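Researcher: We plan to redesign the surface later, but first we want a full-length starting point. Tokens attached.
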């Protein structure tokens, strides 16, 4: 479990380092990092785009790197535990964001259980897909493994666009939330300046 956790976490740290030093991380991480330069995505979208890269790609890569040949099945329990922890964090983050922006609390009260269930369902699907990907990578030669990672990365990078541009009506709601985030952040800055 510790080895899986370290390899998994290091994939994000390495991607972040590559991006900051002008190198090229995976396409799914490039999409996630590039979104930080845009104004419209809300905090939850940023989190989901990052989770898309980290779970859908990195976790599937980390698993076969953790275990010696022929022993991948022994990792399944720990693999599922990591995903359980990540899924539980989504609800905590939503609650903390609602404390920052009270209107989000109203939305959470109205849609929270449904929204959390959808996110957790996607987390479960992401976990299952990541495990299937790990099983696919495990027996491959290094050359074939790298090509499989490139192919998967392209697919996951395309999905990040769905998260950042989910369509007209969801984007309209997200825009309202984003304006609220901005207004609330400005109000907090002004209060802080008055108190200092």
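Model: Full-length starting sequence:
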């Amino acid at each position: 479990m510790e080895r899986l956790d370290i390899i998994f976490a290091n994939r994000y740290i390495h991607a972040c380092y590559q991006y900051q030093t002008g190198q090229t991380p995976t396409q799914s991480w490039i999409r996630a990092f590039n979104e930080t330069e845009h104004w419209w995505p809300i905090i939850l979208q940023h989190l989901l785009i990052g989770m898309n890269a980290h779970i859908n790609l990195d976790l599937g890569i980390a698993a076969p790197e953790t275990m010696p040949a022929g022993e991948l099945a022994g990792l399944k329990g720990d693999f599922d535990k990591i995903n359980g922890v990540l899924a539980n964090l989504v609800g905590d983050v939503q609650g903390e964001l609602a404390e920052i922006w009270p209107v989000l609390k109203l939305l959470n009260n109205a849609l929270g259980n449904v929204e959390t269930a959808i996110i957790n369902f996607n987390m479960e699907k992401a976990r299952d897909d990541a495990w299937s990907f790990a099983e696919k990578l495990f027996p491959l030669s290094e050359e074939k493994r790298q090509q499989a990672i490139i192919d998967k990365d392209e697919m996951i990078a395309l999905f990040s666009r769905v998260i950042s541009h989910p369509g007209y009506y969801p984007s309209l709601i997200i825009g309202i939330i984003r304006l609220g985030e901005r207004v609330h952040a400005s109000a907090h800055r002004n209060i802080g300046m008055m108190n200092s």
